[in-house]
Amino acid sequence: MARIAVVAGDGIGPEVVAQARKVLDAVLPGVQATEYDLGAARWHRTGEVLPDSVLAELAGHDAILLGAVGDPTVPPGVLERGLLLKLRFAFDQYVNLRPSRLWPGVAGPLNTVKPGEVDLVVVREGTEGLYAGAGGSLHRDTPAEVATEESLNTRHGVERVIRDAFARAGRRERRKVTLVHKTNVLTHAGSLWARTFDAVAAEHPDVATEYQHVDAAAMFLVTQPQRYDVVVTDNLFGDILTDIAAAVTGGIGLAASGCINPEGAYPSMFEPVHGSAPDIAGQGIADPVAAVLSAALLLEQFGHGEAAARVNAAVAAELASRTPGVTLRTEEVGDRLAAHAVA
Amino acid sequence: MARIAVVAGDGIGPEVVAQARKVLDAVLPGVQATEYDLGAARWHRTGEVLPDSVLAELAGHDAILLGAVGDPTVPPGVLERGLLLKLRFAFDQYVNLRPSRLWPGVAGPLNTVKPGEVDLVVVREGTEGLYAGAGGSLHRDTPAEVATEESLNTRHGVERVIRDAFARAGRRERRKVTLVHKTNVLTHAGSLWARTFDAVAAEHPDVATEYQHVDAAAMFLVTQPQRYDVVVTDNLFGDILTDIAAAVTGGIGLAASGCINPEGAYPSMFEPVHGSAPDIAGQGIADPVAAVLSAALLLEQFGHGEAAARVNAAVAAELASRTPGVTLRTEEVGDRLAAHAVA
Ligand SMILES: CC(C)[C@H](C(=O)O)[C@@H](O)C(=O)O
Ligand SMILES: CC(C)[C@H](C(=O)O)[C@@H](O)C(=O)O
């Protein structure tokens, strides 16, 4: 793995991405990184979200490391649809990977789980469903207005992400995949997901399976997050469930994600789940752990499992050593993580 | 309010409904109740889910009190689409009301909230969205299969449920309504919901408002459920969010719901959120509190606010007096609640 495009973005994005690069450089010297200026700041300055020329340049990289984009001054949807979702769709990043662990030392909101007990990964479909952008409206701003949103699901898209989930489960200790959908109401898409899941499951007799409706899964993520190993689900359900999983494991401040094109035909993208947090930007107090863990996902995706493991170990040591209530310094955390990861 | 149709249903349904009726009879003597045999048992016996003649008879009642329907032996969708959703749509029950309170004495899973701090109600749209049944598939069981689900939203349907939410908020202490949607991705439906919300909000300057994306709301329901008063949202988001709200306030065993046609053109339906729980059916150990709280919602809907308050007070006393780990007896709980409600 050689060429990384770095989109530091807005708010705390540049601060946390700097630490992720520091750690990457420490464990894998020689990574080539090119910076791209995208996000709210660029949009304000130039009106551009993602010029075709930049998209083409990004396509020439192996991976994208993204900090955070967005700002309250940008109208909703502009950067989401124009940048984040555009990249996911243009680069066919159909595996949206979101691990959640309750790390020792982290005080989660649940009194029912102990650190170390929760270790799950949501494999969220990233290129279909209600995110397809298929919808419209008629008679806008009249009493007769009607608005639609269409969830599009293909056997192609569903099967490949389910295959990825089973492959991941096969490499994990518990070897279990939970399919989450709403087959009792969304009968057409639900049936496609369920039949495809069963077909792929039949090829993996060593992997245990279960099915849950999305409402039940949302509940069990709160009451028994320990029960999950790999969860595979559609784009929108995955969006919701991964925020619940983050919440029960200490917040989105620790949540990493990868938008992955497993075949490597296009670059994959790695980014913390948190946003640009303009309220604390520029103060050097943002927690870079989610960005660093996203860099670890990047390492893992490109076959540097040993380096990824060292980063994860550094994060574990960092989190275990924190004193609740003490304000952290972004740079210092990055220094500690980099030092620990090469020690 | 005079005529109630009772659908005791399957599993623990009859056991908990009996207690709800006991309490109703105690606080409002003279309620006329007619029993209807619907659910898994009837389907197994006769193949019928909801005959037109029964639907017509139900329409002649003021309200329906439902225990629980369903059984693992019934194929998914049969009773959901054929009975529960059929009733919601046929009787235009567009307000799906789901209160969540963390009652004193109830041990919730969160270490961040104290009993009494959480008191929210989700006003879930009940007749539109992805529940409309608009979808289909092509090339089934081939690699070319495509399946769609369409979310249908009308100004008519969105406005009336938002109006209901504001009216409810106006009668509550905190007077706050949170709109939950996903406007940054579901731009057409999201825009309809957001514009309608703003228009109705302008008529209610005394009610505070906020907007949250569904993923953020799912997270905040876990980390800060105290922040919510009235939440208004679409059918599917409401399905998911109410299970999270139930989970953080002690589980669906305590969660009540009403499927309401506010105009009274059709009967409204009141039912515990929990299912038929076949694993504990027939043992007399199911908690009837959710069914009893659903009966309280029924009382409130029909103008018996004082009787509803007495039922709620009885539930509060019951829950505060429970010893963790002691198995309850369904009948005894019903007796205590009835006695307390009239004391
Ligand atoms: C910003 C938004 C478009 C995005 C999504 O909905 O996927 C975000 O919530 C996420 O989870 O990455
Ligand atoms: C049983 C199912 C159709 C139903 C729903 O999705 O509305 C249930 O989950 C609920 O919340 O009442």
From TrEMBL, chains A, B:
GO terms assigned for molecular function: 3-isopropylmalate dehydrogenase activity
Keywords in alphabetical order: Manganese, Metal-binding, NAD, Oxidoreductase
This protein's record includes keyword Kinase: no
Enzyme Commission number(s): 1.1.1.85
Isopropylmalate dehydrogenase-like domain location: 3-337
Record-linked InterPro entries: ICDH/IPMDH (IPR050501), IsoCit/isopropylmalate_DH_CS (IPR019818), IsoPropMal-DH-like_dom (IPR024084)
Top-level taxon of origin: Bacteria
Cofactor requirement: Mg(2+); Mn(2+)
PROSITE patterns, alphabetized: IDH_IMDH
Name of the featured protein: 3-isopropylmalate dehydrogenase
